[in-house]
Amino acid sequence: MGLFLLAVTGITAVLFLLLPGRNLLHGLSLAASAGLLGGAGGLTREVLRQGQVTYPALGGFFYLDGLSAIILDIVLLLGFLVSVYSVGYLEAEFRHGQVDERRLGIYYFLMYAFMFTMMLALTVKNMGMMWIAIEATTLASAFLVGFYNDKLSVEAAWKYVIICSVGIAVALLGIIFLHLSSLSVLNPPQLLDWTALYDQAEALQSPILRLAFIFILVGFGTKAGLAPMHTWLPGAHSQAPSPISALLSGVLLNSALYGIIRTVAIVNKNLGSSAFTGRLLIAIGLLSMATAAIFILTQKEYKRLLAYSSIEHMGIIALAVGIFTPASIFGALLHMINHSLTKSMLFLSCGTVLQKYGVKEIARIRGVLSLLPVSGPVFLLGLFAIAGTPPFSVFSSELSIIGAVFAADRLLLGAVFILLLALVFMGMALSMFRMFYGGPRGKLVRGENNLPGTVVLMLLLAAIAVTGLYLPPDLQQLLLQAQQIIIGGQAHAG
Amino acid sequence: MVGFRPEQVYLLMMLLYGGAALSALLLRKHPHWGNLTAHGLCLAAAALGTAASLLQLTVVEAPLRVSLLQSALPLIGVDLVIDRLSAFFILTLSVLGGCVSIYSFGYLQHYFGRRDVGLFNFLYALFILSMFWVLTAGNAVFFFIAWEIMSLLSYFLVVFESEQKENQRAGTIYIIMTHLGTSFLLVGFMLMFSFTQSFDLLAGSATIPGWAKDVMFILFLIGFGTKAGVIPLHIWLPYAHPAAASNVSALMSGIMIKTAIYGLLRFVLGYLQLQHAWWGMLLLGLGLVSAVLGVAYALMEHNIKRLLAFHSIENIGIILIGLGVSFTALAQGHALVGAVALAAALFHTFNHALFKGGLFLGAGALQLATHTKDIEELGGLIKRMPRTALLMLIFSLAISAIVPFNGFVSEWLTYQALLGSIGPGQAGINIIAALAVAALAFSGALAAACFVKLFGISFLGLPRSEHALHAREAPASMQLGMGLLAGLCLAAGVYPLGFLRLIDQVGVALTGTAIAGGLQGGWGTVSYPLAAAGTSISPPAALAVMVGVGLAAGILLRVLGGSGRERRYGTWDCGFAAINSRMQYSATGFSKPLRIVLRLLYRPGRELVVEEGRSPYFPDLMKYKVSTEAIFEKYLYDPGLQLINRFSSKLEYRVQTGSIHMYLLYIFLTMLALMLYNRLV
Amino acid sequence: MNPSSYILIQILTILAVAPLVNGIIRKSKALTQKRQGPPLLQMYWDLYKLLQKSAVVSETASWIFTATPYIVLATAVAAAVLVPVSTLIIPAGFPGDVIMLVYILALGRFFMMLAGLDTGSTFGGMGSSREAMISALIEPSILVSMLTVGLIAQSTAVGEMMAAMKLVTAPLLHPVYLLLFLALVIVLLAETSRIPVDDPATHLELTMVHEAMVLEYSGRQLALMELGAAVKQLVLITLLVNLFLPHDQLLTMTGSGAVLLSVLLYLLKVVLAAVGIAVIETSTVKLRLFSVPNLAALAFILSFLGFLQYFVLGR
Amino acid sequence: MANYLDALSVLILVSSFVLVANKRISSYIATFRLQSLLIALTAGMMGLQSLRLEGRVDVLVVGLLIVSLKVIYIPNLLNRTFAQVEYRVEKDFFLNIPLLVLICCGLVVFSYFSISTIAGINAGTINMQVVNSVSVVLIGLLFMISRKKAIGQMVGFLVIENGLFVTALFSTHGMPFIVDMGIFIDMITAVLIMGILVFRINEKFESINLHELKNLRG
What we know:
The complex is a heterotetramer of chains A (494), B (681), C (315) and D (218). Chain A is mainly α and 494 residues long. Chain A has one domain (2-487). Chain A has helices at residues 2-18, 22-50, 57-60, 66-95, 101-123, 127-145, 151-182, 194-199, 206-224, 232-239, 242-271, 275-297, 302-323, 326-357, 368-371, 375-386, 393-407, 411-432, 451-466, 473-487, and strands spanning 52-54, 63-65. In chain A, helix 2 (22-50) packs antiparallel against helix 4, helix 5 runs antiparallel to helix 6 and helix 13 (302-323) runs antiparallel to helix 14 (326-357). Chain B has 681 residues and is mostly helical. Among the domains of chain B are: 333-359 and 368-514, no CATH class; 592-627, no CATH class; 643-680. Chain C starts with a helix and ends with a helix. Chain C is globular, with a radius of gyration of 19 Å. The longest helix of chain C has 32 residues, at 122-153. Chain C has helices at residues 3-32, 42-52, 63-82, 98-118, 122-153, 158-166, 175-191, 210-213, 219-244, 256-283, 292-313; one strand spanning 56-58. Chain C has one domain (3-313). Chain C has 11 helices and 1 strand.
């Protein structure tokens, strides 16, 4: 099943380069993503039943457990929604002559290649392979960032490629040290094999492992957009086509964090305490939140603003992982899901706004609510949601993280955390709310011009509104499994 | 009734509000029917709420616990606890809500065709529902959630007429202030959680160390103070209230800011159990500052709704004075004084909901009739809208704490509580209490002045603009809504005992001390339970005497006086040209003496523009502009915000320079730093 | 004594005596100024004449203008009920206290200010705005000083306060009560619109406050207003003298004779107070409107000091 | 045997010093070629060794790959790219050369200081070689930071890759084969993408000087 999924994705990606005709392309992408989503559902059920899924094929490189299943589901769910949205989006672009058929094909090809690499990163057992896949995500998305091929997007793409490759290279150094630390313990077939590393964690050589963690944190941290390595993120997110920004922010960052979390699990088990990793993660997390909070306050472009908010949320998750209590891990994973859904919803509505107004500056936009009867309100509510306002889901996960922080007797940390959240909200309100009200300038017609996209937006809004107070039991079980995988020992919801 | 289950009534009520919201949305296309059904359902729900809460205040003893949803999400659970404190606030909410709904039947008609009434009513009904949840939340998390939802909905209601710039600004200031306040609350709740491992409001706080309790008190004070509009956290209030539609501002000012009072009672008195006297004294101090400054700023306002908003600040101050006295007294073990002060605070909360709600509704009627909020453009409306005028007069008298109305009784109780709190050997409290008495008296007199201005300028004299000249009386439903409130004001003023008995039930539930026994001396007489039976007032008696004397005087005149006719004639114009509307006193002129006396507070600025004509003695045009400063914004908030802004915009370009080399350098340095850390740790 | 007859005595005495007080003040002012002055009973005649005349009412005015005279009189009289002329006639547990007194008078003032604005004339507005300022500034001193006295009686009922003051020997030699007394004197002058705060005799727009408000009144309405003002003045005088110059402790006998004697003594005190007011009025000048705050501040400081002294020295 | 490897690792380090000291683009492409050659040598020796001892050929294969890619293909690619974008003589570095070299020495010392914690874990001298290789990585990064031109950054990135590779080689005698392969594929693709982007930058900004790329700020 899992191998099949990977294969399907890869093949579809290639197909896009061969097939002619817009409708055919759209149709294929819809069908493929729907199928993938279904497959993901099946896989998840299997994981729920057996705890993990592996196949003997190709030296049993395929490995899926609760942790990776969660993120895989996010990838495929968002993949589906984004490809539905993309249909309307690209059609509009096509009408405005932004893209031609060829570029359309390339777009889909790159998008599916991107998804393929991410799925690979999440489903391999071998840390080295994982590294390769994550590096590949950068390469696959580079041209998506530079898709519009104008000054700004090329610049963004260059920065994206260079910074991420360098960061990833540092991560490779970390992987090498990880390998080194395990040399005396593991024997060839299971080298760099995560499960093996985790089981034998106590036996690994701590000094090297610590060094490895440092490099992996810096490396994958760069990819995950943690301050101060976040610098590529605002540019890339603001220049990429909005559906891609949604994927970047909702999925890519998570899969980078996934690498860190796997490593943290090993290191903490080896060191027997989370002090070493915790300090770093909390520091970097707070730094990211603070950076975002300050930068949002005077941000002038809405997509950049949202990008900074992604940095903030990555910081939140990192901090929660740093606390490393069952509750905090649960919150962190939950927050991954909620942030992905909410943030991608925001980026998608950004896309609609951008297509309506054609400008990225907040100052030049007025009357979104009156002009976009659906996307406008969704956008506004999404802002409240992402800022942690109940009853939306981001609030509930932030709450559980804050609760975990306080339960761990980190009172001051918790207070600072809440303060930063408030600052972020203030920044958003000050810099962004004004674009929703008032009457639009110029002669813009009222109404939505991306129907499938609008449907997607409403679905997402419903999702984050419902999960704000209610957690499906399956998801809960999955989260508990993941929590157990990371932290070991007995699972509980915190 | 047999097997009466209040829970069910409350549930039904919630359903009704939900139904109102839904029906409003569904009937969007037919604003008239939608409005009718929505507010009809709200009215029914309000009636149910009133009945249930009354029953609970009188019959039902034990607090009700209703668990609506136990979520799989950590820390989140939705359960309601309705005890007498909640019941009292629900009563207030339902009474005001009902009247406002009646009012809205007519009021919202001016939206038909122009705005989305369906959406408005949807938000409106949910807003009431969210307040109900705030008042009944059983655990801190759900309280927080309901609180945020309430803020969110009220924000949307504030920016509902969002095409005006000032409304957007108002909304933004409001949502930011309230969200900042809320995060203080969150820290408080989390402290509570980290020490007791639970969010249950009725659980004991014994395991919380003293210092943490102090910190929590401060946090709660800031958090709730922001919502209540306690000076200096009040800046959002004078913007938000005028921006909202009048029926909404009535609810916001009548109930929403009172949820903060509820919060203080619930968390500080009920949960933290008052460990120091200085908590109360702090409240007292804040209260008297807010009372005086609030009314002082109100005096300078000519926008009727801003004026009323500042009066909300004043009355919150008065409530806080009562609350402060009771907290201090209870902390020192003077149970009876505490109970009286508490009763005073709660009664004033109720009264303020009545008359302030009414005033905002009246303001709405004025705005509807004259299309302006500026009283300088009104005048002579008593001729054109006699009933509205009468109702406004009643509300004005009530809020100025003048005798036969309810405002007086609660202020009287506050005075008495202050008197009772004064005792030998506690200098601090004594001095603050004496100052509080002075503050109460001062704010009372200023309020009277302010409402003489409001009523006199807008209803009396000659009309000052076309609008005022062609104003028409408000629709019957609006009058009915206001009339009910006015009637309640009078009832609560003339026969306070009935209300005080209910409130006493709350007091008993909270402090275990009853004052009702001491309160009653003869019919309609409220006596002061602390001291000699001498101290007592009887509003009905006073009313009777006054009416009697008035009638007697009238009859006497008929008998003694010769020809009883009175001649109508023009106002004396000193023999110059006939009086016109520009010669009468303006609101600015009326408040000028006090502006000069209190110039320290307003830092008034004035400029005189003269366009000289043929000779300096015959100017073509003279403009005289007077402005007062909003001290707190100008000297406290703006500088802070500018500081942050400058900092961030600086940093933005220092850090995110756009140079890729810089970015790589960051990574490089981070790596080196972490390697160093690894080596050293 | 039963409440109804108490109320009757109160109302009748005060209604009967109030105009006389004005007469006494005017007469003694005239005498101090070496003038003949009007006869003592002049005000009674004035009232009678005015009652005969029908009123002229502005076309702009509304029912408020017509209702105000009755309300003013009614509130003044209702206030009179709360301030017993003698402690011997107070029925047990009579409801009503000094705070209520203040806020009943506030009702009258409220309507008087409205009436000033009602006619749309320039003077009326001026009068009410000035009145608003003065009353606002004076209010705190009344309540603080009354509260201090109330502390002794542990009650704010005027009767209780008087009963308590009886036990104090020579109140005016006691620092606390001296301060409070002075404060209340200032309050009295301000509330009854006397020099130095206001000038009852003036009709100069620069100086008039109370007169400006009632400027549009004529005939029987004016009469009611005048009477109301006089009653209010007497009520305040009564409050002052009965609190700080208690006399009932001098009486040894009981019964109706005692009551009569006590009332006579009370009248004597009122006459003294009236003469005192006249002396103050002649010996001071009217202040500029914006110096009145200083006077009010003085009053407040006096009362607050009194309050503090009460705790410094004990009772 | 071991001391040959020591010598090689030192030589590789030195070569990166030389790289930093180069002024012209053409010259540091050449230096990169040299460094890659040295690495290929190392890989070859280790490959032979492992073939003799364990009968593993993978390291050898890897060595050959390096020769074909890093010694021959990529440098040529770089040269071609460089030839096609218009060339303007301008100062290509922020800090002057001597200072850069000094900083590099500092980096070596630092990496010795921070990595010495893992002394004596593996057989004897690996430690020293690891230090050298890690400092190569750091120097490569420093090189990227110090060069203005896009190609300079590409070279820097490749040097980092070299550093990583030798680290892997010296510390662990090569990663698992498949991983190594993957790394190579990634690297090639990365370089290709960067090349294309360099062209685009050149056409959009009429220069490959990264100073122009400062529009995305704040």
